[in-house]
């Protein structure tokens, strides 16, 4: 499975979601002007990255015959 390029792309996409989530939560924790400026933007980026990751996971399952 680790030699499959699509699996690696899915893993990178999931990792990107986690990193963006941690940055967003971190900006909430800082508070003040930083939180006001970046928190909402980071959570929007997370939603977009998560949608891409889910689409890639579904594509991976569909292409690899996991649909039945």
From TrEMBL:
Under the heading Gene3D superfamilies, the entry gives: 6.10.140.1320
PROSITE patterns assigned: HIG1
Report whether Zinc shows up as a keyword of the record.
no
Transmembrane domains' residue ranges: 6-31, 43-63
Q: Which UniProt keywords apply?
A: Membrane, Transmembrane, Transmembrane helix
Q: Residue limits of the HIG1 domain?
A: 1-68
Which domain of life does this protein belong to?
Answer: Bacteria
Task: Cite the NCBIfam families for this sequence.
Answer: twin_helix
The molecule here is called HIG1 domain-containing protein
Its lineage reads: Bacteria, Pseudomonadati, Pseudomonadota, Alphaproteobacteria, Rhodobacterales
